[in-house]
Amino acid sequence: MSLLPDYTIIVQLGIFLFTVLIINVLLFKPVLKTLAERDSRTRGNEDEAEALSKKTEIKVHSYERRLTAARQRAAEERRRIVKEGADEERSRLDQARDVSVRQVEEAASQVAAERDAARADLSRQVQALAVEIASKVAGRQLGAGGAA
How confident is the model at residue 136 (pLDDT cuts 50, 70, 90)? Predict the structure, then answer.
């Protein structure tokens, strides 16, 4: 053993530090930078995807509200049309009923008038026939009053 200090440890330590510095500059920093950029892009894409998801959700809710409103308007329109149809049907039935009642009343009055005319005609014919039969039975011409 010698009394001189062993500088190999210091030289090895220097080589180690130099190697760490070179590896840091050539390997660790670029890899860490690439990982940071990839993480940044991933987070950016996630943020963009989340923003698009929220935007889509808002549009879906808006569409659903408009669709619900359109369905309500369609239901109201359908009810209105059905009501108008029922009113129109009721009106036409009332008109038809009025026309048929009038026709029945007219027919009844015509039948009554024809009945009265037929009775009057039959009454005259009965009287004439009675006078004719009485004249034939009496053997002489009788008047409408019963004596000639």
Answer: confident
Residue 94 to residue 145: CA distance in whole angstroms: 55
pLDDT reported for residue 135: 84
Q: Counting runs of H as helices and runs of E as strands, what totals does the chain give? A: 2, 0
**Chain Cα centroid distance, residue 145:** 85
The residues, any chain, with a CB within 8 Å of residue 127's CB and separated by 6 or more, are 144
Q: Is the pLDDT of residue 80 over 90?
A: yes
Question: What is the spatial distance between Cα 73 and Cα 98, in angstroms, rounded to a whole number?
Answer: 37
Give residue limits of the domains in the chain: 45-118
Residue 148 confidence (pLDDT): 47
Distance separating alpha carbons of residues 134 and 40, to the nearest angstrom:
136
Would you state the structure tokens that stand for residue 7, as one six-digit string?
């500088």
* Alpha-carbon separation of residue 17 from 4, 20, 43, 135, 144 (angstroms): 24, 5, 35, 169, 164
Question: Residue 131's closest CA among 148, 111, 146?
Answer: 146
Q: Which two tokens stand for residue 27?
A: 């390997």
d(CA 65, CA 130): 95
